[in-house]
ORC1/DEAH AAA+ ATPase domain-containing protein (Seohaeicola zhoushanensis), 416 residues
Amino acid sequence: MSLFSGTPKPEEVFTPRSSDVNRRSYIPRPDLEEELAEGLTESQHLIIFGESGNGKSWLYKRVFETERVSYEVINLVQASRLGSLGAAFQDRLSRNEELEKEAYELVKSGGIKPQGVGVDFEGTWTYVKGKKEPFERLLAYIRKKAGRGKAVIVLDNFEQISSDADLCKQVSNCIILLDDPTYSQYEVKIVIVGTPAGIDEILSKSDNLQTISTRLKEIPEVERMTPNEAKSLMRLGLESALKLKVIGNSDIFYDRMLKVTDRIALELQELGLKIAKEARKKDGKIDQVVFDRATTKWAKNSIRSTCAMLADRLNSNETKAARRNQCLYACGEITKDTFTYKDVEAKIRELFPETTKNVALNVSGELSKLSKDENPLLRRIESQKSYRLSSPKVRMAIRTMLAIKEGKVVRVINDI
């Protein structure tokens, strides 16, 4: 009998790219779930924002399932690709209508007409195809599907249109139109999902700020997982579900996982999957070799391009102090989202006391250079005279590729 008979496969436990919520690896986020659920009962439309990979989609899908919300997702990549929001609505409707047609023909062949397709029945709307413009048709479609329940249009991946004034104007128009009796009768709410903070301010550039902001409510940012949430996810998947055994100090092992992934939910799932597969090759044991092999494979898959960018910015090993390397390493160790050159200098002096004692470091100059490259690792925030990493993946790349040995920054992974 197999050592793993009766246990699920790693890819059944860790499903980082799944569009559906995986109950095996979903960690509840009660405060955010409550905020979203309450927002669904209020008059305003909603904004969900946070860095890519933090779990925005699973959050709203979990809440919608719990609250029995009917919804349709409009990927704003389609609006950008097709040239208008109306075209994206039409594309979604056409796909749904084709599914309805197939279902109708399948059931009709059995002699039964499907309930509610083109037919009035108590407590629901009749959805008449082709008689309205796409936005109203989509509202009617969702209302028919929802019956008397809650109904939502999700406009996902807002960052894909945030710099397109015309598409932002079209989103604003839809929000405002939902106060018009023709459209408000369907009682459908819009939920906008994306990475930028201040989505209401972006939309207000095409309309009066008060006009938009009074109609929108932003729930708190969907941030990276807390340490407790991240450890719960990994223990649940690796030890409870897959019955794998961590060799040595498990707290140190999980702390390392949390550090290299920056507690980003998507990356935790990706790394968890790689670790589980490697561990199954070694009788279900997770040791240092398993962790290192899995981390290298994860980095090649998830942060390869960022690692290449980082490698291009490093000083050569022959440089005496390798100040830029120290700056980059220090930026990866700082946990705050924004930091000043003074924060970085303090961290460098803490980490490299021998090469920084009584020496002027010119950290501000190094940070300025790193923020002005064609593909910068840092972003300068002029209003605050501070910096932030251009992406959470930069922090992951720094923490995965670099280490301190004998007082110098060295690459510990070279074959990415």
Summary: Residues 85-108 form the longest helix (24 residues). The first strand starts at residue 45 and ends at 49. Residues 141 and 252 are 52 Å apart (CA to CA).
